[in-house]
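Narrative of activities, Objective 1.

The group set out to show that a structural description can be obtained from nothing but a protein's sequence at a throughput compatible with the screening campaign. Below is one input-output pair from the validation batch, recorded exactly as produced.
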Amino acid sequence: MSLAEELSARLAADLATAEREIAEIDLLVAQARTEADRHEEKRAAAAERMATLSPDERAAAADQLVTLTRRAGLMASQVEVLEGKRKTMGRFRDALVGYVEAADPAAPNGAAGAPSSAAVGVLPPELAGLVLGAQEDLRREIARAMHDGPAQSLTNIILQANIVERLLEKDPALAAGEIRLLVAMVQQTLDATKSFIFDVRPMVLDDLGLMPTIRRAVRERSERAAIPVSFESMGADRRLTSDRESAVFRIVDLALVALLAQRPERVSVKLDWADRLEARVWATRPSDAHARAADVPKVPDETPGDVPPALAAMMEDRRRAEHAAVEVARQATVVALPDETWREIQGRAITVGIVAELQDAGGDLRLIVDLPAD
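Output recorded for this entry:
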């Protein structure tokens, strides 16, 4: 089997797998939506029943209503997560269809007049190996993150549910506290799963665009690091091509994470929508060099003409010392991007034609993106 035939076979197999997974997701969405509706009906019935209960009975009913409300919210969130995955798998399936058509023009869905594989060229074995290796690395990282995060949390939830089940038979009063702990665990796992999905591929990027996605990333990164991050967007934001929106978001998020890891005083993100999009990310930290710079005697910027040469030379020396102290103070406040992060940013920017610049001793990242014509 030639390399072209092998690549076509792999693409066809991946396409079939994607179709099966989409069908499974559709089934899960239907089941989750049914469960969500059922929990919502129970919640509504419990809310109506509370109005007919005595004050003594309402306390227990209120706890039940809270539990039902959380369950209904959880099921609704699961529906949202599954629908987001369905949309992602749909885009992946559509991309595979395009690749299959390009690799095999004679395929049933092939485009008329599509160039042959010999005309478009076949990937060299080394490059094909790199592509497949990158895909496997990505799958491995996602699997590891799912195993260490949501999967482990769900295991703990199952154990906690078993504890609650046993306590309900022996000591209902003690079970109430364990139920509250179980609800907190479910909420924490739900929040972690949402954060994981946002890190993998934020659905809001496809639905609303770049500016709302970066705003949300700034807010969440700031809360996790407990460091203030300011965000400013000037002008009316516009949609970019999908690959450029993804690249700009990933670059800004990479820079944000790298800068926050250095524990600065503040990080700033700014988008300027004019004839072209200019995005900036920079951070500052406090420094006592400012105080040392303030101790340097101030001298006029220009030396008067009637000053003796010796005094003029002394004033020039002090002027240089002042400028040097100010520069040291400024450099001490700069938080520079790590070299590894900068190399990754450059690679992403070059791929989609974005201009990336690093200024101010590596502490000011600037991206310049051409906007599509209206």
